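tokens incoming
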């Protein structure tokens, strides 16, 4: 393996919504004791989930796996309204770890529906965030995943149509779909502010800045992490080979062969500990320098649920 230099994207890793969600689980465990039930993965990172599981968190797919009267935490991705109703019917104590930026989308959906609009949700089919947003209403919602979906879209009144987006999409892909929607439905209206979250935008911008300076890009993130997958795609679309690893153990030395400059970033749900382990592995394989790049500063902090914050 030849000598390599490593460039570190900035910003990378945890965002404020992920930090808040993890802290909600940690505080609930500390204050109420195990077990604390979590519906779906709190965030899409295997290391985070396994660490919380070892401390007493029990991850479930459905609410009927939670004993009556138990405590359940809803993941950062948000949930359909029906899940809140079901939790109340089962007498569950609920802490909602939905990212506030996802909640913002849910509030937008409610306002758009009250005004008599149908809504196009731009997002990934089967992703918990899309399911949560689509589940804000039983009617009037349409999911668009790709450009090819736009011509097939059937709506009641093209003059009363709005769109929202999943917060972790590719900024460029979402813009193409919005443009296609506007071309077909000129009256369609979007949210006052872009739904794609600041952290997703910043991390994609950081990769766009880093990738042209690199021969290969390594993204730390779990396979089911939407925003991590988008970072890999951003680098690939710029013509740079890019790979995603859950941990340093997944790194294949052949990816680095003949690649003197390696770019490293991490999805918004990947802890910095995993980045540090990857850097150590790169050092073992010949990295001689590690240089953080400049990037957008992030100072966003989200408040905790009152009951967990006051102790």
């Amino acid at each position: 393996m030849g000598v390599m230099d490593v460039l570190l994207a900035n910003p990378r890793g945890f965002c404020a919504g992920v930090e808040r969600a993890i802290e909600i689980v940690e505080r609930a465990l500390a204050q109420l004791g195990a077990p604390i039930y979590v519906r779906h993965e709190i965030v899409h990172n295997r290391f985070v989930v396994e660490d919380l599981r070892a401390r007493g968190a029990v991850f479930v797919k459905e609410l009927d796996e939670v004993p009556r009267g138990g405590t359940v935490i809803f993941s950062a991705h948000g949930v359909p309204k029906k899940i809140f109703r079901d939790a109340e019917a089962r007498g569950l104590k609920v802490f909602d770890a939905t990212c506030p930026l996802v909640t913002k989308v849910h509030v937008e959906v409610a306002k758009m529906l009250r005004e008599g609009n149908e809504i196009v949700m731009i997002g990934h089919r089967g992703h918990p965030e899309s399911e949560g947003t689509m589940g804000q209403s039983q009617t009037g919602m349409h999911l668009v995943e790709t450009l090819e979906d736009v011509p097939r879209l059937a709506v009641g009144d093209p003059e009363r149509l709005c769109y929202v987006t999943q917060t972790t999409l590719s900024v460029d892909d979402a813009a193409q779909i919005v443009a296609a929607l506007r071309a077909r439905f000129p009256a369609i209206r979007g949210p006052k502010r872009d739904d794609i979250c600041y952290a997703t935008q910043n991390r994609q911008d950081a990769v766009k800045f880093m990738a042209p300076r690199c021969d290969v890009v390594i993204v730390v993130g779990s396979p089911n992490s939407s925003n991590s997958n988008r970072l890999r795609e951003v680098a690939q679309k710029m013509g740079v080979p890019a790979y995603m690893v859950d941990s340093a153990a997944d790194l294949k030395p052949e990816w680095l062969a003949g690649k003197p400059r390696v770019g490293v970033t991490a999805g918004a749900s990947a802890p910095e500990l995993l980045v540090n382990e990857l850097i150590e592995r790169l050092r073992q394989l010949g990295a001689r320098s590690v240089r953080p790049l400049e990037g957008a500063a992030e100072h966003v902090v989200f408040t905790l649920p009152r009951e967990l914050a006051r102790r």
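note: Residues 217 and 263 are 4 Å apart (CA to CA).
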